[in-house]
Amino acid sequence: MRMCIDYRQLNQLTVKNKYMLPRIDDLFDQLRGASMFSKIDLRSGYYQLKVKECDVPKTAFRTRYGHYEFLVMPFGLTNAPASFMDMMNIIFRDYLDLFLVVFIYDILVYSKSEEEHDEHLRFVLQRLLSNQLYVKLSNQKKIHDVFHVSMLRRYRSDPSHVIPVEKIELNPDLSYNE
């Protein structure tokens, strides 16, 4: 369970830090030639990012039990994903595009061989440890299943998730200006 505060008023006053999402074709180009993949999830992702001391009062909320302020990044702030991605990109700058993809608090490590992969995982885990970032051990997956690898190599979508264009019903009452 996650506590989420209604920060709509604060978010309206916040200068938005838009973070570009990676393009899928760029990701596939990066992964070309790799045969070993591991996905690492950070535990309570945003809660591992400290809020600047001067911004702590902005996170304040009140309950019947008292007044509280977050010392770590709460869910619901407009710039939380961009701030977290920025931190992750700084921490892993020298590994990005070589054997690592970061997406908010998910990390994908990819390699051409099992030996190389074990070395890459050691680098990543050491970097996480030295930056006091913690992973969800129950969610770690070493993906070497032939199906997953072949899907990554072939640039295919899962057919069960694709709807043919001719089956999409259009509503003539909708306009682009709504």
TrEMBL record:
SUPFAM superfamilies: DNA/RNA polymerases. CDD domains: RT_LTR. Residues 1-137 form the Reverse transcriptase domain. GO terms for biological process: proteolysis. This is Reverse transcriptase domain-containing protein. It comes from Hibiscus trionum. InterPro entries: DNA/RNA_pol_sf (IPR043502), Rev_trsase/Diguanyl_cyclase (IPR043128), RNA-dir_DNA_polymerase (IPR053134), RT_dom (IPR000477). Keywords: Endonuclease, Hydrolase, Nuclease, Nucleotidyltransferase, Protease, RNA-directed DNA polymerase, Transferase. GO terms for molecular function: endonuclease activity; peptidase activity; RNA-directed DNA polymerase activity.
